[in-house]
Amino acid sequence: MPEFIWRGVEVESLERARVSQGVEVQVESVIDSARGRYSYELVCAADWTFRSLHLEALAGHRSFDLVRGDDGAWTLDDVERADLAEAVDLDLAISPLTNTLPIRRLDLGIDDEADIVAAYVSFPDLEIVADPQRYTRLDEDAYVYESLDSDFEAELTVDAAGFVLEYPGLFERL
Fold it and tell me: Which domain holds residue 100?
């Protein structure tokens, strides 16, 4: 079970994540951040399609379960979230690991791009909104990430398995 460690640059943090891949992908992670301590368990299908997230904000004693069913319907603590109906991926603002989901799921060729919608979780407020995004593959180890409802853009460097090595100004893998 590989372990990954990322350091937050813009907001000081340290994430330790363990990833196991088999019939499904399972991630267990703890993030110590200037915004608090968080832990999450993430489950994806074998092709990296998001299935479920259990997140705990340890300092604020808050937790939630976010699930995307086989029919594409999203629920937050068993309450339907119709506003997320177009979302396929998950984007945790506090973790570069969730960039791996669309990178692996889309399996883009060099110079290919794809528009997606992600369920975006902001921190520390833990608000969840639908967020249109674009991924463009530049070469074997580089992607451009764009937020389509803002002017944010970043060139991500990844390893051969699609895990972020560098997210300029935000995260770096140790």
Answer: 3-173
Q: How many domains are there within the chain?
A: 1
Query: What does each of the 174 residues of the chain score in pLDDT, given as a tens digit?
Result: 789 999 999 999 999 999 999 999 999 999 999 889 999 999 999 999 999 999 999 877 899 999 999 999 999 999 999 999 999 999 999 999 999 999 999 999 999 999 999 999 999 999 999 999 999 999 999 999 999 999 999 999 999 999 999 999 999 999
In this prediction the pTM is 0.95
CA distances 121 to 23, 39, 66, 111, 141, Å, are: 26, 14, 10, 28, 26
CA atoms lying within 13 Å on the CB side of residue 151: 0
